[in-house]
Structure prediction request, 93 residues.
Amino acid sequence: MTELAAGQPPKTGCRRCLLAEIAGSEDIVAAVGRARELIPKSDLCPDELYKKRLSVCRECDNLDSATCLRCGCYVEIRALRLGAKCPAGKKKW
Ligand code: SF4
Prediction:
C-alpha cells in the first residue's frame, strides 16, 4: 500500500481528463446527456460558457478523473446549469 503525503489528494487516474475521455465512462457520459435534456432551456448553460467552465476545471488542481475534489461532482454535470457555481473558496467560475 502506498502512503499519501499529508494534505495531498490521492493520485488516481488521469487528473486532467473529463468523462468523455475516460475509457469505460460511457454510461456516465450518457447520463450527462440525459441530465442536459432534463434541464429547462432557460436554466441550461450556453455551450460557449460550458466549454469555458470545463477548460477552467481542466487547469484546476481540484480536478481528478473528471471529479471536483471540492464537491465530489462530475464537473461536466455541475457545469450544466447556468446558475451553478464553482465550489472553490475563490470561485473560478
Ligand atoms: S474547484 Fe471549481 S474549477 Fe476546480 S474542479 Fe472544482 S468546479 Fe472545477
About this structure: The chain has three helices and two strands. The pocket of iron/sulfur cluster is lined by residues 56-57, 60, 62-63, 68, 70, 75, 86-88, 92 (CB under 6 Å).
